[in-house]
Each structure stands twice: as structure tokens, then as C-alpha cells.
Design brief:
With 198 residues, the protein is mainly alpha-helical. 81% of the residues lie in helices and 2% in strands. The protein has a two-stranded antiparallel ribbon with strand order 1-2.
Length: 198
């Protein structure tokens, strides 16, 4: 990759990672409810899960997703339904609920797995694959893409979780936390709507 292409990739990765979306809304809500340190597995799962997905898509699945409209649409609709369900859970319970019925933050594996059903992530993954994965060097270019997205993701998810934690004192009143979680749930719903309008 030339320096111009890498610069464009970095700009796109940071714009995509830092703008509001499902991942950022979920880590901010978790930071507000549980603090940064309990949210860190969620942050790390997001930061590693998405680049891993990008790498695998770039090396193995990129062409398949670009050619199969049915696969793209199935993923888009399925992911949108899961995001809407997660928004509903966030708005009504304050987070994931354990078997004991208590709210808890996402685990590392849950957060990493979430990347595979996030329509915003797949939209970016398909677009990035078509623009930045070089057919002559798919593994090398996919690795560069993954590293760039890891750096963008870890800084973004950490910042959103810390912003949520900063709101923790304000959100200590149960009513305020409920409204904050509802605002984050609304952000997820808005992301789904925008994905379907775009």
C-alpha cells in the first residue's frame, strides 16, 4: 500500500470508529453503569473483534460478500433485528442480564462476537474490502487494515467507555441511568434507521 492509501484508510477507520454507532453506545452505557474497568473486556472485545472480522473478510470472504446480494441482505436484516432487540434490552434493563437476573457488562467474547452481527460493521467491512484489500497481496493488505482498525477501535471504545464512566456520578440516580440508557438505545435504533436509508 502507498502512503496515500494508508492515510485514507486511517482517516476512514478513525471516522468510522469514533462516530456514534452500536458499539460506542453500548460501551458508553456500560461505562456509565459499571465503570471503565468492568467495561474493559467489552472494550477489548470490540477493539480486537472488529479487526479480526475485517482480516478474515479481507482474506477469505470479501469477494463472496461483494457478489452475493442475498448474503448481504440476510446479514443486514438479521443484524438490524438483533440490534433492535439489544436496544430494547438496554432501554429496559440497563444492560445484559445474567442468569441470576442481575445486569452485567458484556464479556470479551460477547463483545467480539457482536461484531459479526453488527450491520454497521459489515457495511464498513464490505466497503473496506473492496477499496483496500489488494488482490496481489490479500493477507498483507488485510493485516494492515486490521492493525489500523485495532488502533482506531481501542482508542474509540476506551474514550466512549470513559465518557460513560464520567457520567456515572450523574447517573447514580436510578432515573437518570434509565434515561441515559434509553438515549443510548435510541442511538442504536437511529443507526439502524440510517443504515437502511443509506
Amino acid at each position: 500500500m502507498t502512503s496515500d492509501i494508508i492515510l485514507a484508510l486511517v482517516a476512514l477507520a478513525f471516522a468510522g470508529a469514533w462516530t456514534p454507532g452500536p458499539n460506542n453506545a453500548l460501551v458508553a452505557s456500560s461505562g456509565a453503569a459499571f465503570g471503565y474497568f468492568r467495561t474493559f473486556p467489552h472494550v477489548l472485545g470490540t477493539a480486537l473483534g472488529f479487526p479480526l472480522m475485517m482480516f478474515l473478510v479481507g482474506v477469505f470472504l470479501g469477494e463472496l460478500f461483494q457478489q452475493s446480494a442475498l448474503l448481504r441482505e440476510t446479514l443486514r436484516w438479521g443484524g438490524a433485528l438483533i440490534l433492535l432487540w439489544m436496544a430494547w434490552r438496554l432501554a429496559n434493563s440497563g444492560g445484559l442480564v445474567s442468569r441470576q437476573g442481575k445486569a452485567r457488562p458484556f464479556t470479551f467474547l460477547e463483545s467480539a462476537a457482536f461484531q459479526w452481527i453488527n450491520p454497521k460493521g459489515w457495511a464498513m467491512g464490505i466497503a473496506i474490502t473492496s477499496q483496500f484489500i489488494l488482490p496481489a497481496a490479500p493477507v498483507r493488505s488485510a493485516l494492515i487494515v486490521a492493525v489500523v482498525f485495532f488502533v482506531a477501535g481501542i482508542t474509540s471504545a476506551s474514550a466512549w467507555a470513559l465518557a460513560g464512566q464520567t457520567l456515572m456520578r450523574w447517573a447514580e440516580t436510578p432515573g437518570r441511568l434509565v434515561w441515559f440508557n434509553r438515549a443510548m438505545a435510541g442511538l442504536i435504533v437511529l443507526t439502524v434507521v440510517l443504515l437502511f436509508l443509506g
